[in-house]
Write a structure and sequence with these properties.
Number of helices: 7
Helix content: 25-40%
Radius of gyration: 20 Å
Largest sheet: 6 strands, mixed
Structural class: alpha/beta
Low-confidence stretches: 42-58, 64-70, 118-123, 128-134, 137-141
Strand order of the largest sheet: 1-8-7-2-3-6
Mean pLDDT: 76
Number of strands: 8
Length: about 240
């Protein structure tokens, strides 16, 4: 877990980034990195907790008639999941749906499909939202399996989750930029709830730049743009 108070310091440290990358690269099971940005207020003093202690203290022989009513607790969470395909994204989607079994959690999953002119002849395409960055374009033989997986997960969704889980597909010329924009619209709207999550596959194979080999290209951009949510980066178990 990377905490809010150390995000900037640690993730910009070559030594720490190398440590995370090596830990993920040598992991033999499905692994996740949680970037905690005050999820459930766990890293900062909650006003509710302070009020409770104040009431307890004043209750010992002091007058409490001027105390206001304690605020109610909103335990809800919203998960936004950009799906770019690949084993990591599939593992992340499965985790998001497992979390959605909690009735306080809602999930939005968006499948971003790259639209590239003459895509069959292109190995990579420049991304406007990433300076000097490129994202790899999935080959035609890879796409059907990702598309089929996404559709299968959507159609096999239990009835109990259908009111709280939304699936969408978007064809985009700039999927990373669109994913960041959608994340900013999806998360952070309800500042009083239990906290938002952006769930991502690590998908280091998407990026050509070595700098994005720690948490992955999409996570790097989400953090750079200061998306108002905690981030979970998932890496699927490697097949040996």
């Amino acid at each position: 877990m990377v905490s809010k108070n150390t995000i900037e310091h640690k993730l910009r440290s070559d030594a720490y980034s190398t440590f995370i990358a090596e830990a993920l690269n040598t992991a033999k099971c499905t692994t996740a990195v949680f970037v905690n940005r005050s999820f459930s207020g766990s890293l900062e003093q909650s006003p509710l907790a302070l009020n409770r202690r104040l009431v307890a203290k004043l209750g010992r022989g002091a007058h409490t008639e001027h105390m206001t009513e304690l605020p109610s607790i909103d335990r809800s969470h919203h998960i936004f999941m950009p799906f770019f395909g690949g084993a990591d994204a599939r593992a992340a989607l499965q985790l998001a749906l497992q979390l959605a079994e909690n009735p306080d959690i809602t999930v939005t999953v968006v499948h971003y499909q790259m639209r590239v002119e003459e895509a069959s002849d292109a190995d990579t395409v420049a991304i406007k939202g990433v300076p000097d960055g490129k994202i790899r374009v999935s080959t035609s033989c890879d796409k059907p399996s990702d598309d089929d997986f996404f559709v299968t997960m959507q159609h096999s969704l239990p009835d109990a989750l259908r009111t709280r889980v939304t699936f969408r597909s978007i064809i985009s010329y700039d999927p990373v930029q669109d994913a960041v924009g959608d994340a900013q619209n999806e998360v952070g709207r309800n500042a009083g709830n239990g906290g938002h999550l952006v769930m991502l596959g690590r998908n280091v194979e998407l990026a050509e730049e070595q700098a994005s080999r720690c948490l992955g290209l999409v996570a790097d951009v989400m953090l750079e743009r200061d998306v108002k949510a905690s981030i979970v980066v998932v890496q699927a178990r490697k097949e040996y």
